[in-house]
Amino acid sequence: MERYDIVIVGAGISGAVLAERYASIGRSVLVLEKRGHIAGNCYDYIDENGILVSKYGAHLFHTNDEEVWRYVNRFAKWYDWEHKVLAKVDGELVPVPVNITTVNKLLGLNISSEEEMKAWLEMNRLHIENPKNGEEAALSKVGPYLYEKIFKHYTKKQWDKYPDELASSVLDRIPVRTNYDDRYFSDKYQALPVGGYTLLFRRLLSHPNITVKLNTDFFDMRKYIHGYDKLFYTGPIDRFFDFKYNEKDKLEYRSINFVSETVDAEYFQENSVVNYPGREVDFTRIIEYKHFGNQVSDKTTIVKEYTVDEGEPYYPVPNEKNMKIYEMYRKEAEKLSDVHFVGRLANYKYFNMDQAFKNSLEVFRKLQFDELLKAKRRIVTSNHYI
Ligand code: UDP
Q1: What pLDDT, in 10s, does the model give residues 235-264?
Q2: By CB atoms within 10 Å of each CB, which of 92, 209, 218, 383 scores lowest?
Q3: Candidates 62, 154, 276, 287: which one to mutate for ligand 1, based on the most atoms within 8 Å of Cβ?
Q4: Fold entry, domain 6-81+189-249+315-376
Q5: Separation of alpha carbons 22 and 146, rounded Å
Q6: DSSP category for residue 344
Q7: Is the pTM of this model over 0.90?
Q8: How far is the CA of 192 from the centre of ligand 1 (A)?
């Protein structure tokens, strides 16, 4: 096999950013992608109804990070899109994150100011200092009623674990609002790429120094790949080490079964995402892609998401048991000086998209800095001998 300076396993955010960065400084880059397409879980395409849909679930970009925002703007035009989520609770559609409207609708109250909402939360939330799991985190923010209606069973469906079996960080992702703000995120930049994410990835990877091989599993090729300076691995960390520490307990990931349907109507639901936090259905949410960017079609595509154990690994499951297993792999990974583990699956961490961009930009910067230092040391040492 031809020699490349940099070999990257995976053409998702982490892999594509590193490929672009190394190509831009003149290094030859090989990207190996197991799937038949680039863009990882951000992959989107136009479906049979003429609607831009995401194959692996809706991806809403949001960030407060200036560097990441500048970087992504080099490869796509972005249009403002503030994501909103409604949840169907007892037949009523209510905003998530919880805000004044959520509480008023579910409890038949008439809260009308931030002060009243704060007072309601103070009366109803449980005062738990340093919540030690997801249940305590949610109870200390919203109290038992909303916990039961919005978080407890949704989390069980999503993770196959109740919130008390998960790290508090999982439920801490969702804020509680004391006003009427019904945006899902409050970041400074909230936007979607014009033409979709796949186009953005095509641009990231279009450099002449980059070769992308699709439908190519690194583990089938491993023995033929030699002579690189650096290898970046963005897949599941346990797979890299042949699952050697999974004997007693396996490192868990959650996967999603996406069930798509065409509905012969202009719209199916009033919002892009409707969560179903109750036990009455098995799916967690329904996405109606047409809403994103206000797309036009005489039909509509909806996708129900069922979270499952088996299948493509999407979400690492942050709890103590998994973190212990992950730690064994991490130590093993640390010993390999020319292999770098980057991204959500290789770091076993629940990254948002902007964090994945940031992580790759930082890894690149750090490695470049280390190389500069090494080069400097070489010059100093060689001068010494002269
Ligand atoms: N969650 C919930 N009810 C909801 C929305 C979220 O219980 O209506 C919990 C659930 O445990 C979920 C976590 O909050 O996994 C984080 O939600 P987020 O929307 O960030 O998950 P993602 O979009 O990454 O699947």
Answers
A1: 999 999 999 998 777 899 999 999 999 999
A2: 383
A3: 154
A4: Rossmann fold (3.40.50)
A5: 48
A6: T
A7: yes
A8: 20
